[in-house]
Each structure stands twice: as C-alpha cells, then as structure tokens.
Design goal:
By secondary structure, the chain is mainly alpha-helical. 53% of the residues lie in helices and 0% in strands. It has 12 helices and no strands. It has helices spanning 7-17, 22-29, 33-40, 61-68, 97-100, 103-113, 119-126, 130-137, 152-155, 160-172, 176-191, 195-203. The radius of gyration is 32 Å and the shape is rod-shaped. The relative contact order is 0.08.
Length: 204
Amino acid sequence: MALPLMPKATAVWLVENTGLTFDQIAEFCGMHELEVQAIADDEVAVGMVGRDPVAGGELTWDEIRRVEKDPNAKLQMRHQDLPQPVARAKGPRYTPVTKRGDKPDAIAWLLKTYPQLTDAQLCKLIGTTKPTIASVRDKTHWNSQNIKPRNPVLLGLCSQREMEAALEKARKGRPADEEEETETVSGLVEGGAGAGDTAEYDAD
C-alpha cells in the first residue's frame, strides 16, 4: 500500500485533527500503533508540524468520516490523476558546470593510464564526447597547454566502482589472439630465452 509523502508528519496531523484510532492511523502511515500512541502522548515528534493529507490530495474528509465511524475500517489513499515523472532517457552523464573544465584533465589521465579503454567507454565514464577525446589525444585541444592528467575519481567525474567496471569490460572485450600474444611475451620475459633461441643466437 502506498504511504503518504511524509508519514510521521501526517500521523501528527491525524492525531490532532481526527477521531481515528491509533491502529487506523498507524496502518495508513506505515507505522507501529505504539509509535502513534507515543505521538499522541507527546513522547515523540514533539514540536513537529503536522502535514494535512487532505490539502495534499491524499485523503478526503468523506473518507476520514467514513473510517471514524467504523473502528475496523481502513483509510484508502485517494487516487491522484497526476502526471508521473518521466524517466530520464539514456544519454551523456550530466556534469555540474563547475566540473566541466576538469574533463580534459581526466581524459588525458585515462588515455595515459588505461589506453585499453575505448572512446565509447570514456564518453560514458566521464560524460564527454569523441571529438573532445580525439583533440586531447592529438594535442589539438584549445587548452592543451594547460591540461594536466588527473584521476577522474578524485575529480568527482565518476566513481571507483564505475571505473573498475569499465576496465573489466575492456578486459573481457579484448580479442583472444591479443591475450595469447600478451601471455606469450610475458612468458618469455619471465622465463628467459628458450633453447631454440640460444641456438639461433650462437649460430649468428
């Protein structure tokens, strides 16, 4: 069941202005009956201004009067024909104006530190555009002289969790032959040259 916008303040108002039972008020406000009784006894919510659910469009006086006459009845929230909030369409991340100047620094840091990230991932991660990324990479950005690579997490442009998720996605999206080549090179570096390599070296 939907609850009023401000349950406790609504309970305060109903205690002060109606003859509803504690149980009826508790049911409507999603509270415990003892908590409503404590409000009536001035043990909690002392000084809290009550919120009128009738003025707020959540109840009608007819509904309150109906329930007052029957201790077993329950208040029914008034159906409101109000437009529902429109969900924000997916798109570039919104960045406060005060932080927008930090994006080139963040791009430079990511390009240097995590070159495996795609331009699309960078766009999503810090809310930038591909032309901006290209200008930073090519050093053709209008403010190139003042760009200093800085961690976007510390700049507040993304969270550490978001960055780690992007890196994990980039790692999983890497082609298999590229992974094998990396592992082979790593093995040679760690294990040293093999017998065949030595023989070829001696022959030269």
